[in-house]
Amino acid sequence: MDTELGTRRDAAYLKVANKADPPDFAVVWTPGDRWFSLDVAGGFSLVYIEEETPGDEVRERLDSYLSIGLRYLSGDRENVRSKLLRIPSVRVGSGGNAVTLRLSLVDEVRHLFGRRREG
Predict the structure, then answer these.
(1) What tens digit of pLDDT does each residue of 4-43 get?
(2) What are the C-alpha distances in Å from 49 to residues 18, 37, 98, 116?
(3) Contacts of 107 (CB under 8 A, 6+ apart)
(4) Number of CB atoms found within 10 A of residue 81's CB
(5) Residues 70 and 17: beta-carbon distance below 8 Å
(6) Cα 32 from Cα 97, distance rounded (Å)
(7) Is 36 exposed, middle or buried (0-12, 13-18, 19+ CB in 10 A)?
(8) CA 53, CA 6: separation in Å to the nearest integer?
(9) How many Cβ atoms from other residues are within 10 Å of residue 27's Cβ?
(10) How far, CA to CA in Å, does 67 sit from each of 26, 46, 74, 98?
(11) Ranges of H-type helices in 1-91
(12) pTM of the model
């Protein structure tokens, strides 16, 4: 795995990429509190927003998101589609530990109307 640690705008991030599949990545973002995000290849993400997150919960959230990202990169994932609208998402893990990463609302609307994001 390759890792990159940095800042962008007012948020810190950790990007982990799979050496065996370079376009495959997972990025955990946060400004330190208020919101946390896990983004993976394909535009899928998991976002948590809460004002005034306690310090111990910040660490737990970051550990959890990094763990989900690593499971995603290890291949413990499944591409799924919603039953009614056929909107794609990615399920990481299985059973009671499964987490679903979704497209942004804008990308879901684009998908519904047949317009995919360029680049």
Answers:
(1) 999 988 899 999 998 888 789 999 999 887 899 999 998 9
(2) 28, 9, 20, 27
(3) 43, 117
(4) 11
(5) no
(6) 25
(7) buried
(8) 22
(9) 19
(10) 10, 13, 11, 12
(11) 55-73
(12) 0.84
For residue 65 the two structure tokens come to 């998101």
* Euclidean distance between CA atoms 96 and 55, whole angstroms: 26
Count Cβ atoms below 10 Å from residue 26 Cβ, excluding itself: 25
* Residue pointed to by tokens 């499964």: 98
Give the integer Cα–Cα distance in Å for 82 and 8. 32
Least Cα distance to 74 among 36, 31, 24, 11 occurs for 24
pLDDT tens sequence across 44-61: 999 998 888 888 888 899
